[in-house]
Amino acid sequence: MRIKSGVTTRHHKKKKFRLAKGFYSDKSRRWRMVIQQVDKSLVSSYIGRKDRKGDFRSLWIERINAACRQNGTTYSRFMSALKKAGVALNRKMLSEMAVRDDASFKQFAALAQAGSK
């Protein structure tokens, strides 16, 4: 008597189809396309998790640069002056200050301009 693998196959396929939910057109309905798209998507999501770190760093730098220019300096001069002054704030915190707490960022900008002269 042979053993059929219907239950196992169904569980295996259901898992992939669940991952493919919401994909465009047949990529969520046809088994062969589901396999291909899910594998590709999982690879892309792995890469995306690595890329996200750099994306956020770029965003923080843009925000700091915009706030610096409003206060009469540039990003590179600002960061250089902060480093010389011994301020150990990271870019994430500086960008949060630039967005939410303008007064304290102005103090850092003044410190940076005094240090660069």
Question: What does this protein look like?
Answer:
The protein has 117 residues and is mainly α. The chain has one domain: Orthogonal Bundle (c-terminal domain of poly(a) binding protein), CATH 1.10.1900. Helices cover 77% and strands 0% of the residues. The protein contains five helices and no strands. It has helices at residues 6-19, 31-70, 75-85, 91-100, 102-116. It starts with 5 loop residues before the first helix and ends with a helix. The model has no long low-confidence stretch (mean pLDDT 93).
Summarize the model shown.
The chain contains 5 helices and no strands. It is mostly helical.
Structure keywords:
about 120 residues, mainly alpha, c-terminal domain of poly(a) binding protein, 5 helices, about 0% strand, rod-shaped
Domain module count: 1
What share of residues are in beta strands? under 5%
Total DSSP E strands: 0
Biggest β-sheet strands, sense, barrel: none
CATH-defined architecture = Orthogonal Bundle
- List the total number of helices: 5
Poorly predicted runs = none
- Give, in order, the helices and strands: HHHHH
What share of residues is helical? over 70%
Determine and state the CATH class.
Mainly Alpha
- Whole-number average pLDDT? 93
Structural class: mainly alpha
Shape: rod-shaped
Looking at the structure, the CATH topology is: c-terminal domain of poly(a) binding protein
CATH H-level homologous superfamily name: Ribosomal protein L20, C-terminal domain
User: What gap, in angstroms, lies between the N and C termini?
Assistant: 89 Å
* Rg, nearest Å: 26 Å
